[in-house]
Design goal:
elongated, 2 helices, mainly beta, Methylamine Dehydrogenase, Chain H, 3 domains, Immunoglobulin-like, single chain, five-stranded antiparallel sheet
Length: 658
């Protein structure tokens, strides 16, 4: 359309036609299109739309003034609709909803000029997964960090997502700085979970979860029995073989691997309300993945909402073959267990089937995000029984292997004992449990623990510590060569490690099996060579002191099992020793508790407490206030008469408190 401009215009003269304004430039002798100047801002927060020129949605953009072209901005569903469009003018804009891209038409075709986006804020940093609150009331201050890619300000918040603040602590917030102030009253001890969130108000929120524990020093010098449960019949045979407790001691899970006529296995859930423990819920196998010594070893997260249960003879293929072992992950809601995943052994070699050890020892971090699985008897390549340990990581409800640690020696049985710190940053793997000359490494090296630390998803060896007991063939440093229920435990931060060796001899003897246990401490990245835990009473032959060990999250209480200890009441009835850290930082024995079932009056050479092995199952709660003890070989007698034959090892589980 032709425009008739005025004759003899003067410089700067304005003229409007067709809704457009032009200004005359006498220097160049032409009429220039007059446009609206756009200010430059340095911060998006400076943008204010006082005249409502900027539409609320880009789809409302229309070029009524013709600044952007005669056709304005048009929204197209997808690229096909954009390409098929007709009637465009030079400078027209198009927004394609399918890809959020903006295109400009130059008279002959479309060109991309921008992408419309508002990304989520970055992942939150500066927030740890676990915190131990100071009992003197010193606040824990957390500065959470996240940024918005487009520069929008973030709104921060927090919520209690598990447990209750109650009187345990108060939380205050100043933008992204959160202050958690704990109580100084012993009765206020507890555990709770906070979820920290950040949002730009448009594209959802990002969050980070932390578990907080307030605990006070407990006095275990006079421990007492709070509860016991005797298994009966085939519902829970060998109950107490392995035990795990939640952080606050409100929930306990117990392995019953010999349940059933063919050792199908089971596990039990115990819950506490105040001082009352209800009847346990027994979980039996659902299919062949779970069928096969289910409950050989057990592990649980801090809140008792996710557990790992090993089925040493479970089928990796879900049928009656390939019983190389599985670890089953369940989520718990009350006493209802829902299977989340099956983590199967990766080998079905003949030796793995004849000598199953996958899952013989397992450990889960406090957040339920990582699990380490020992496979002490596995053969790999040309190596026989070299042993391995695997770390698996959870993303949502999916578990995947993160790394495998192997050995270069025949009969090294690496993975006979494994542990992961509560924060998931340190892993401990023992090796060298082979007996006699079959263990190549044992000829020149003492058994050892390998310590790995994590950065992101990468693991690296921090150090390797040899057993203070030295080189000898009959060794169970960290656990048996079968790798079942290893004797190894660590604190929440991984800075204190306890390892037992139930077969260690005294005075150089390799046959006495008095047993030993040591505590190792890390300062920075350096580890000491270990301090032996010395019981107050002398050890007898085959006492197997150190067969099981457990330590609380803060490293104040260590309990060492001595399951084959004997006294006048019974043979190998078992006992445990309690060591507590004193003011100088040393662990000293404060109590020793023997099998509480005095059945010395029962006649018969195979009395019910012969080889009950009280203390073979052992676990202390994170707050050090509850101790679970198992006697998996406990027999049941009624009125002095055995109810079954010698093989009826029903088992019994006990709860002790300070």
């Amino acid at each position: 359309m032709a425009i008739n401009f005025p004759n003899s215009p003067t410089n700067g003269q304005n003229f409007s036609s067709g809704g457009k304004t032009y200004v005359y430039n006498s220097t160049s002798g032409v009429w220039d299109r007059k446009t609206t100047a756009i200010a430059t801002v340095t911060d998006v927060s400076e943008l204010t739309d006082t005249t409502n020129v900027i539409p609320a949605d880009i789809s409302d953009l229309t070029d009524t003034g013709g600044v952007l072209g005669t056709g304005g901005a048009t929204v197209y569903a997808d690229m096909a609709a954009l390409i098929a469009a007709t009637g465009m003018s030079n400078g027209d804009l198009g927004l394609v909803s399918a890809n959020n891209n903006v295109y400009i038409y130059n008279g002959s075709g479309w060109y991309k000029i921008a992408t419309v986006q508002n990304d989520s804020p970055s992942a939150i940093t500066g927030v740890d997964g676990l915190y131990s609150l100071a009992k003197d009331g010193t606040p824990t201050v957390i500065t959470a960090v996240s940024t918005d890619p487009e520069g929008f300000p973030l709104t921060w918040s927090f919520a209690v997502t598990s447990g209750s603040l109650g009187t345990t602590a108060t939380v205050s917030q100043a933008d992204n700085v959160f202050t958690i102030t704990p109580s100084t009253t012993g009765s206020d001890a507890g555990t709770f979970e906070l979820t920290f969130s950040a949002t730009d108000g448009v594209n959802g929120a990002v969050s980070a979860i932390s578990i907080f524990t307030l605990s006070f020093s407990v006095d275990w010098s006079s421990g007492s029995l709070q509860y016991s449960h005797r298994a009966w019949g085939w519902d829970a045979t060998s109950q107490g073989s392995d035990i795990a407790l939640s952080e606050d001691g409100n929930k306990m899970i117990v392995g019953n691997p010999s349940t059933g006529n063919n050792n199908e296995g089971a596990w039990s859930i115990f819950t506490r309300s105040g001082t009352n423990w209800g009847s346990p819920t027994h979980i039996v196998y659902a299919d062949h993945y779970e069928r096969g010594r289910l409950g050989t070893s057990v592990a649980m997260d801090a809140n008792g909402t996710r557990v790992a249960i090993a089925a040493l003879d479970g089928s990796t293929s879900g049928d009656t073959s390939n019983r190389a072992g599985n670890v089953i992950i369940y989520t718990l809601s009350g006493t209802t267990a829902t299977r989340e995943a099956v983590i199967a052994a990766e080998t079905n070699s003949l030796y793995a089937l004849n000598f199953p050890t996958y899952g013989g020892c397992i450990s889960m971090d406090k957040l339920g995000e990582r699990i380490v699985v020992g496979h002490a008897g596995v053969s790999a390549g040309n190596l026989t029984n070299c042993g391995q340990a695997h770390i698996y990581k959870r993303t949502g409800t999916t578990w995947a292997k993160e790394i495998t640690f192997g050995s270069d020696y025949n009969y090294d049985y690496q993975g006979n004992g494994v542990a992961i710190s509560g924060d998931g940053n340190t892993v401990f793997i023992t090796r060298g449990a082979g007996a006699g000359n079959s263990n190549e490494r044992a000829q020149t090296h003492a058994p050892s623990v390998k310590i790995y630390t994590r950065s992101g998803t990468s693991w690296s060896l921090q150090t390797e510590i040899d057993s203070p007991a030295g080189i000898y063939p009959s060794n169970r440093f960290g656990g048996t060569r079968e790798g079942q229920r290893g004797s190894i435990s660590c604190t929440n931060d991984g800075n204190i490690l306890v390892i037992g060796d139930g077969y260690a001899g005294s005075n150089g003897s390799i046959h006495s099996r008095h047993g030993k246990a040591w505590v190792f401490t890390r300062t920075g990245t350096s580890w000491d060579s270990g301090v032996e835990l010395t019981p107050s009473s002398s050890l007898g032959s085959y006492d197997t002191f150190g067969t099981r060990v457990t330590i609380d999250d803060n490293g104040t209480v260590i309990v060492v099992g001595k399951p084959q200890a004997s006294n006048s009441q019974y043979l190998e009835g078992g006992e445990f020793h309690v060591f507590q850290k004193n003011e100088s930082g040393s662990f000293v024995e404060v109590d020793k508790i023997s099998n509480p079932d005095d059945l010395s009056s029962v006649s018969g050479t195979e009395g019910p407490q012969d080889a009950a092995q009280f203390g073979r199952g052992l676990a202390i709660s994170g707050n050090a206030e509850y101790l679970g003890v198992g006697a998996p070989n406990h027999y049941y007698y009624a009125n002095g008469v055995p109810t079954g034959w010698y093989g009826d090892q029903y088992g019994k589980t006990y709860i002790y408190i300070p």
